[in-house]
Amino acid sequence: MSLLQILQDLMALPEERVCEVGTEVAEMIGAALEGDCQDHTSEIIDQIKTRMALVNIKREMLDDVNGVTLSQLLKKLKLF
């Protein structure tokens, strides 16, 4: 289910961001395969989910026409 959520989040990105973030995700997976991380699949997925969560927070901040207050940002990061 985690991988499905990652793919759905990736596909929900604006077209200009899909390639950039997709490349980052692929690099994380590639680094795990090259290193001694193959037994740590859940950790790799957590790293990818963290990256996707940060992308979503940034997108929400950019989409907010009224701007984001510091307290709103801190709330988002605390939930994160």
Q: Can you put this structure into words, describing what you see?
A:
The structure is a single chain. With 80 residues, the chain is mostly helical. The protein has helices at residues 2-11, 15-34, 41-63, 70-79.
> How much of the residues is beta strand, in percent?
under 5%
Shape: globular
Total helical segments: 4
Distance between the termini: 19 Å
- Please give the radius of gyration in angstroms: 14 Å
Number of strands: 0
What is the mean pLDDT? Answer: 76
Helix content class: over 70%
Order of helices and strands: HHHH
Q: Pairing-aware structural class of the strands and helices?
A: mainly alpha
Low-confidence stretches: none
Main sheet?
none
Structure in a nutshell:
The protein has 4 helices and no strands. With 80 residues, it is mostly helical. Helix 1 packs parallel to helix 3 and helix 2 (15-34) runs antiparallel to helix 3 (41-63).
Notable characteristics:
80 residues, 4 helices, 0% strand, globular
Write the SSE topology:
Blueprint (H helix, E strand, L loop, with lengths): L1 H10 L3 H20 L6 H23 L6 H10 L1
